Amino acid sequence: MQFNSVLESLDIYEAGKPIELVVREYGINPKDVVKLASNENPFGCSPKVQAKIAEILPKMALYPDDSMYELKEALAAKYSVNTRQVIIGAGSDQIIEFAVHAKLGRGQKVLMNGVTFAMYEIYAKHVGATILKTTSREHDLGQFLALYKEHKPEMIFICTPNNPTGDALDKTQLYDFLDQIDANTLVVVDGAYMEYTAYADPKKAVMVDDITSRYANVLYLGTFSKAYGLGGMRVGYGIGARNIIEALYKIRPPFNITTLSLQAAIEALKDEAFVLMSLKNNFEEIERYYDFAKEVGFEAIPSYTNFVTLLLPSTQSSKKVAQTLLEKGMIVRDLTGYGLNAIRVTIGTLEQNSQFFERFMQYCR
Amino acid sequence: MQFNSVLESLDIYEAGKPIELVVREYGINPKDVVKLASNENPFGCSPKVQAKIAEILPKMALYPDDSMYELKEALAAKYSVNTRQVIIGAGSDQIIEFAVHAKLGRGQKVLMNGVTFAMYEIYAKHVGATILKTTSREHDLGQFLALYKEHKPEMIFICTPNNPTGDALDKTQLYDFLDQIDANTLVVVDGAYMEYTAYADPKKAVMVDDITSRYANVLYLGTFSKAYGLGGMRVGYGIGARNIIEALYKIRPPFNITTLSLQAAIEALKDEAFVLMSLKNNFEEIERYYDFAKEVGFEAIPSYTNFVTLLLPSTQSSKKVAQTLLEKGMIVRDLTGYGLNAIRVTIGTLEQNSQFFERFMQYCR
Questions:
Q1: Inter-chain residue contact B4 with A104, CB threshold 8 Å
Q2: What is the fold, at CATH topology level, of the domain defined by B5-43+273-363?
Q3: How does residue B94 score in pLDDT terms, banded at 50, 70 and 90?
Q4: pLDDT tens across B327-338, in order?
Q5: Residue B147 and residue B113: Cα distance in Å, rounded?
Q6: Domains B5-43+273-363 and B47-268 alike in fold
Q7: Looking at residue B17, what is its pLDDT?
Q8: Is the ipTM reported for this complex over the cut 0.85?
Q9: Smallest CA–CA separation between B106 and chain A, in Å?
């Protein structure tokens, strides 16, 4: 059977390895598996969220309130915007998908960083768009601007802090860049890990209301998958000018998040103390990774997120290291697919991080 | 800002009204609201599913096993197919989306029934496809064949039983039709309500393994949202030849269902007794709707699903009837948007159905 020709440029996406697979394939006791591969919150989610979901389990049969009224109200209040500037997605991933489909057609251009979140490129390929990339590992806005001026792309992705490198832009730098982009270019500012960055360095904390009040062409993305600890529930959001949100709404399928996910996100927003505890632990524990990197002679990219990227020396293959650790029940992310000889490790609990250091020293030295 | 021109043909989809909205807008006590609008299972989901989900709430933080190994194994066993012939979606809706994007490009053609599930047309518009429709209310395969021969569409949707009319095709009729379609035309057979049909009339029970072994160009869709009572969890599936499933996989975003949804679907498949109880109640209660229709002089389309479509006489507007009932806390689906002066009512529990008859007689006569 013949399919849409855009499929020729697409591969089947290989997601991070789940604990179930390691148990299945390597016969490891589930209790001995440590997953530091998908930047999940090592403390899980707020116990208050769990209690609320336990209460509403019979609602699994009922479609969610597709207006998502309560969640949108809460997000609008948090960010000082109007509810009509907010759209909810099955993870911020889905907002990326909506934005690409709403803005781009075959042959139109999209600009992104050389090393950045893989889904930007994948969704762009879905619509047959032309992909432009900087040569930079961390975001280089100078290069972005030069490519923008040369190619006039219809869409730009900025990921700050950047996944999978962990670096973040100063907000003044970002605003200076945005000032130079024309009103018809849609700029997506993906702040999936912004809670971490804002905690670590206010200078890098991109303010959503600043963005939306200053730029009619910018779509900000946030998620409940990281700091709020709801990776398994698939809830993210996009915030921007009303005409952008309306365009995305035309692409949004009805009931795009589950009834339990909707309620979980609403409850999660009420427990900022849980988030704060998670952030505090994260930046205490991250220091141990920097010390570890120094000890073993790796370069660690300074991180404003809940993960750290360790660049390996050319004598050691990140693919092999990740595979060795996997077979020992320690799941980390190999970045070979991103063109880096590096592994990305999620900052876990004190115990999980100790496990990483121990197993690395035991099996990879 | 300029967007993709396909957006010009798209409206924002208005989903069925949730209970929350009726409570909010009409100040009705949530306990007095009866929702018979979205074809949810009135018994909720299996208590065994609820018990399992209660156990795994801490997993809300963890991304799901994206291989969906266990669920695909269970479905493959149920339908006697290979796991590589199975794909999971956020509702069967999402499989429709994958199929349209994988098969159709701008200007290509898709054929469907005159009155049928709205999302076929909406997703086709996303990619700028040309939509062909029969003039029939219930599926008329003669008209389908004539239009197929005239226009040679790249894709065909068959919805059996059909939503929102409730009628179902005899399987021999369907197979005779499929025999005449060329191998490069993708035919989607949407069996979202097939459990009900199979219970009511084996002659209309389309067998998935028959379909997949006989037709390399047919994609069968099923869902956990109806008979399995998991409408709020958004899990559906597509089954077909491996090359079709592989094409859809290229369009599938990673982690497209939640961790809890995946587990809920796995558990739901284990409790067929719950499904059987739901089916039995459904076809006992549906008789009361037929009696009611006779009593008030409406035509009820004989239904092979968990809903019944009542065609109103021209003296009564379905839009008004649905609105009157809504304001009294009884949510049903007006079908004006489908070109019918009719309401679609989900078969509820004995009490819910009695409520419908009572409130209708009180407020709409």
A1: yes
A2: Aspartate Aminotransferase, domain 1 (3.90.1150)
A3: very high
A4: 999 999 999 999
A5: 11
A6: no
A7: 74
A8: yes
A9: 10
